[in-house]
Amino acid sequence: MSLRPARIALLQAGLLGIAFIASLAIGAADIPVRVLIASFGSGADTDVLLILREIRLPRTLLALAIGAGLGASGAALQALLRNPLAEPGLVGISATSALGAVLAFYSGLSARFALALPLGGLVGALAGTLLILRLTRGSAGSLTMILAGVILTTFASAGTSLVLSLAPNPYAAYEILFWLMGSLADRSLDHVLLAVPFIAVGLTLLLRTARELEALALGDDTARSLGVNVARLRLRAIAGTALAVGPGVAVAGFIGFVGLLVPHALRPLVGARPRLLLPQSALGGALLTLLADIGCRLVPMVGELKLGIVTALLGAPFFLYLLTRERRLQA
Amino acid sequence: MRAAVWLLVLAGAFTAAPTAAAPARVASINLCTDALLLELADPAQIASVTRLSRDPALSVHAARARKVPANRGSAEELIALDPDLVLAGAGSATATVALLRRLGYRVAAIEPAATLPDVLRSVREVGALLGQEARAAALAGTLAALTGPLSVTALDALILQPGGYVPGPDTLGPTLLALAGLRNRAPDLGLAAGGFANLESLVLMQAAVIVRSADAMHGRALADDFIRHPALRAARLTHGKLRPVAVNDAAWACGSGALRAAVMTLRSAVSAP
Fold first, then answer.
1. Where are the domains of chain B?
2. Which of A112, A240, B54, B96 is most buried, most CB within 10 Å of its CB?
């Protein structure tokens, strides 16, 4: 049993490596692998190298970072809210992040001050996390949490659509789908620089709360008796979640269900203890998001499938399965 | 004999007068007919144009449009204005047009232009409707003079609108490039009919000139990020290609005299070293 999590982590890392290379090899321009390798070797600034560095690498790095943030924050929220159905998308945090980012972007604030975009997402995520904790306080029931999440998501998404409809630029209204269904198409290294440092800090914070979150599973009082400062732990987990989710949404839109799918898929393999589940979920989230993004590029259509559509198509049936299983267990 | 001729002329003048008389008050409910109305009519003849035309991002005649009453294209406003003639775009605002016609208003639906002959036709058509045939003939003459033989050394070019949209033959985009003496590369991207270009293909494409929308729009949109993507910038720096020329979309969005300015801007930008 003790070896198993290490093996799973190694397996995930190996798959991540393969997916990373696949992600650099697959794109809208059909460039043979032979040419890709040759352009790496030549070192000259060819068009092919340009495509790799400026288009495919940014989206790959963003998929990894955003996916890791979503996976880890899903596992953390499930421990924090003591609810197996918690995840940034379902509880409304992703939607409030999108609203914050949309306000920062379309007001023109981020044009003058680039960091306003991830900060807008961060503020939105913080607001969403605090709200969902407040709304579910004293009630661990799934129904309350899901309803609160639905309402928060509906409200924030309506706000996002409203801001985009009222934006002075006529193209803004066409961008509702990007914000509500997420995409990594045509992102640049600028976006990587804007989001990834925040996500890295958030991930670090979350991973460092893992041990204490484990104590929290036993109840606030037991955790306190084990020497855990529960109020401070909550704050750290909230800050970690907001940092891991908000800036990612700010550059890639709303990508749902990763934080739900990944911890649940990994729990049978590594157990439910946050100390093991959190880092594994970060790896799994990165893997799932990157694979989903590669999938977006492979679907033959004009343009590209939105990433959030792929994750929702995978995640929603899984969510229904979890919901019915939970009801069966309660009955 | 001479008297008879005079009589005929007089009779003709009298019988023609009611139909040929210029409508005193003309309203337009379409951005493109706005442009033609503003270019061809006497200022006193213009009852109203759409609010859209007051926006410099959408119309090159914004300054002139601000001097006349604006409408939102609703039938209610037009009934209040009670114009002698309403100009509308064929195929757009069909419900409003049908309602106005039912109420007895004279509505002329002008076909949108996608080629230079289309433009000349709509200039002459609106000129005739307004009783400004001479002005229309002069404008059509200057526009017709834009055609010239495509030079052998024509540069490859592509029009790129926000979000990476490449306009197709249902717009004046391809006509604009041809009139500026440029070869349209859209078909090489599989976008002969128009559509969204993908960034990777744009980097690989060996076009000399990218005609991109001027930053006339208010506020920001993600669509602007596409044109400014670092990969396009880098392709330009390392290969000296994909030279961007900014042209206000509003200048060629409609078949009107504004097209001439767009062609001239593009010609001078391309011939500059």
1. 19-144, 149-271
2. A240
**Chain A neighbors of B222, CB-CB under 8 A:** 105, 171, 175, 178
The reply to whether residue B204 touches residue A167, judged by beta carbons under 8 angstroms, is: no
Q: Does domain B149-271 have CATH number 3.40.50.300?
A: no
Q: Which residues between 188 and 217 in chain B have a beta carbon less than 8 angstroms from any beta carbon of chain A? A: 195-196, 198-201, 203-204, 217
Q: What is the pLDDT of residue A175?
A: 92
Domain B19-144 classified CATH 3.40.1110.10?
no
Cα distances from A103 to residues A124, A163, A194, A246, B220, in angstroms, run: 10, 7, 16, 13, 11
At B160-218, the pLDDT tens digits run 888 889 999 999 999 999 998 888 999 988 899 999 988 998 888 876 777 887 766 77
Boundaries of domain holding A310: 61-330
Residue A281: which CATH number?
A: 1.10.3470.10
* ipTM score of complex: 0.83
Cβ A171–B200 below 8 Å, yes or no?
no
What distance in Å separates the CA atoms of residue A191 and residue A225, rounded to the nearest whole number? 44
Choose from B220, B224, B237 for mutation: most chain A CBs within 10 A. B220
Same fold? B19-144, B149-271: yes
CA distance A145 to A32: 49
Strand order in the sheet with B70-71: B70-71, B46-50, B26-28, B85-89, B107-110
Q: Which helix (H) or strand (E) holds B159?
A: strand B155-160
Count of the separate structural domains present in chain A: 1
User: What is the value of pTM for the model shown?
Assistant: 0.87
- Tell me, yes or no, whether A5 lies in a domain: no
